[in-house]
User: What shape does this take?
Amino acid sequence: MSAKKTDLANLMWSEKYRPKKLADVVDQKEIIKGISNLVKNRQEMPHMLFAGPAGVGKTTTALCVAMELLGENWKVHVLELNASDERGIKMVRERVKGFTEWRGVTGEQQTKNLFKIIILDEADEMTSDAQTALRAMIEKGSEVTRFILICNYLSQIIEPIQSRCVVFRFTRLPREDVIEHLKMICEKEKVKFEEKALAQIFDATGGDMRHSINIMQAAAGMGSVSSANVTAAMGLSGRAKVGEVLKLALSGKFNEARAKLLELTQVYGMSETDFMKYANQEAYEMAINKPDEFAAIMAEYDYRLAAGAHPEIQLSALLAQLGKLAKK
Ligand SMILES: Nc1ncnc2c1ncn2[C@@H]1O[C@H](COP(=O)(O)OP(=O)(O)O)[C@@H](O)[C@H]1O
Ligand SMILES: [Mg+2]
Assistant: This one.
C-alpha cells in the first residue's frame, strides 16, 4: 500500500471502488429501481430520505443520484454536509443558505435547468429543534434545491420531515454479494485471497461493506488476504495506530503523519476525541521528550475541538505543532 499521497480516493479501496453509477451499487435492488424511476424526470425529483445501517451504500447512492442528474459539473452543484460535524443548526443553516443563494457557475444553473442537491448525512444526530429548523429550510429552498437526508434510525427523524421526503430503507448486504464484491476488488488489485478469509470478513462485519473492504485492505497490506492476516487485521488496535501517527509527527514527518491520521479517522472511523485520548495515553507510554510542552499543545487542541473548530484542520495543525516540538 503506497501512502505517498494523502489522496484518499486512491489510498482507500473503499473510496477507489465506490460505485459511480446507480446500476453499479451492489444489492439494494428495489431501492435502486425506485430511485432510478424517480430521477428519470429531473424536475420531478423529490426530496429523499435514506435510512439504514452503516456501510451499505446510502452515501454512495446519494452521490450517484447527484452524478446522474447533474452530469459533468455535479460537484459544484452538490453540498455535502454532516450534521454531527457541523455543530449545530446555525452552521447548517448558514451553509445551506449560502449554497442555495449562490447562482452557480456563470448562470449554468438557469440555462440548463439544473437544481442543487444538498446531501445531509447523520440527520438523526440533530435535535428535534434543529430538525424543525431544517424542515423550514427544506420548504424554503425547494424551488432550487433538493435534499437527500441520510440517517441510521428513521425513528429519530421528526415526522414532518419524513412526510416531505420519499423514504428508502437500506438493508445490510447479503453474504454472497459482499463476498463477490470483495473478490472483484482482490482481482483488480492483484491480491491473493483465501475463500475462507472472505467468509470470515463477512462474519465479522455482517453486511457492512465499508468495514469489510477496510479489513480486507488491512490484511492485503500484510501480504495477502489469508485467514491469518484477516484475524490479525481485525485485532489491530486503534491505539497502536495512533502511536504511529504520533511518532511520525514527532519526528517531523508531517505528510506521512497526516496520511496515517486520515486513514484512521476516515477508514477506521476513529473520532477526533478518541484520537486525542489515545494520543495522550500513548505519548506518556512512549516517554516522549518535553512532556510539559506536549501537554500544553494537547490541551490547546483539545479545547479548540471542544469549542467546535473543524476537526480535520485542527488535528492536522496539531501534527504540525508536534513536529515543531521535535525541532526545538
Ligand atoms: N451497496 C454497495 N455497493 C457497493 N459498494 C458499497 C455498497 N455499500 C457500501 N459500499 C462500499 O462501502 C463504502 C461506504 O459506503 P457508503 O455508501 O458511504 O455507506 P453508508 O451506507 O454508511 O453511507 C463505499 O465507498 C463502497 O466502497
Ligand atoms: Mg454514509
Observations:
- DSSP finds 17 helices and five strands in the chain.
- The chain has three domains: 28-169, 175-235, 238-327.
- The pocket of magnesium ion (ligand 2) is lined by residues 58-59, 121, 150 (CB under 6 Å).
